[in-house]
Recover the amino acids of this structure.
């Protein structure tokens, strides 16, 4: 069985059904509840700063955690260039405890931004000889170390409240969260790096174009390289791997009106910056029988244990719940995902 969840960027605009930030936040909570009732496995959000999209994830994740019982809650991904790892460890642990240990925290060095070097406005800058990507990975390593729950801070000899013996750790501490950190890898090399550090792998709908092969073939190779590195590192638990896809079964007139002429059904090539050539994976939109045949040929979906469905959140909760239900009902069983 494959875990299936949704991934929302949380766009809003006055011209859509999701007109404001409040709409985007509250509708994401409602959709998570609906997805749980439908039998989906995950509710994930993307984090973008300086944009009319979801940004600070932990209040939202905590709210979803308080309003649901079973579904995994997570991010895909948080840009670590913007993060204070200590404050983040406290926020993440609190959200995880509220959710009863259901947090799956996806982090990364980040993607192209709305502003130039936006992390500088948040008070961060790379150390001498360090790139912004290096800084993001450094922040990630600090976070991982903090989530081990080991004491590191010298206690005050005259504290306001009594201290336990020894060095102090951050509180609250959530047991097991360290094993539920995922790295969003854009290249094979960063996937291998994530495996060595014991992070799960998130691979999205774009990656560096490293071989010129179709997107799903390159992504499957990335996943295999990750699993090989995981095994070589000697970790004792089994890793998890997710891929993201835009998938729309055409089962009624609304689907055909919205996606019947879907134009993104081929991989696309672009540049993330002047040096980085990227390949963007295709979208899938077809009648269920045709969709099943297309998805059977996607090597990366076959390699992954978790599938995140990127949703058009601006079309509203009811329509997105319909899309999730259509996939769970008309597509997933035929592919052995259910």
């Amino acid at each position: 069985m494959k875990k299936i969840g949704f991934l929302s960027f949380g766009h809003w605009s006055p011209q859509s059904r999701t007109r404001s930030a409040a709409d985007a936040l509250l509708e994401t909570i409602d959709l998570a509840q609906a997805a749980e009732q439908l039998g989906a496995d995950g509710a994930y959000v993307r984090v973008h700063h300086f944009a009319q999209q979801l940004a600070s994830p932990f209040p939202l994740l905590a709210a979803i955690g308080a309003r649901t019982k079973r579904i995994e809650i997570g991010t895909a991904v948080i840009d670590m260039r913007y993060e204070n790892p200590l404050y983040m460890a406290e926020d993440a642990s609190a959200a995880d405890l509220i959710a009863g240990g259901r947090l799956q925290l996806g982090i990364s060095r980040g993607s192209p931004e709305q502003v130039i070097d936006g992390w500088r406005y948040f008070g961060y800058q790379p150390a001498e000889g360090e790139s912004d990507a290096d800084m993001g990975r450094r922040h990630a390593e600090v976070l991982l170390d903090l989530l081990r729950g080991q004491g590191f801070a010298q206690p005050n000899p005259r504290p306001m409240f009594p201290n336990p013996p020894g060095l102090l750790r951050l509180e609250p501490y959530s047991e097991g969260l360290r094993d539920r950190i995922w790295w969003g890898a854009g290249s094979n090399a960063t996937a291998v790096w994530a495996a060595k550090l014991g992070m799960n792998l998130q691979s999205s709908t774009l990656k560096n174009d490293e071989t010129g092969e179709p997107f799903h073939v390159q992504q499957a190779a990335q996943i295999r390289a990750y699993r090989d590195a995981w095994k070589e590192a000697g970790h004792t638990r089994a890793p998890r791997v997710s891929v993201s896809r835009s998938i729309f079964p055409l089962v009624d007139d609304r689907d055909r009106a919205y996606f019947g002429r879907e134009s993104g059904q081929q991989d696309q090539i672009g540049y993330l910056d002047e040096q980085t050539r990227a390949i963007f994976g295709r979208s899938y939109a077809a009648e269920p029988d045709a969709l099943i045949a297309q998805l059977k040929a996607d090597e990366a979906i076959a390699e992954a244990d978790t599938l995140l469905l990127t949703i058009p959140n601006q079309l509203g909760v009811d329509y997105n719940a319909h899309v999730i239900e259509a996939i769970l009902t008309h597509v997933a069983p035929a592919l052995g995902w259910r």
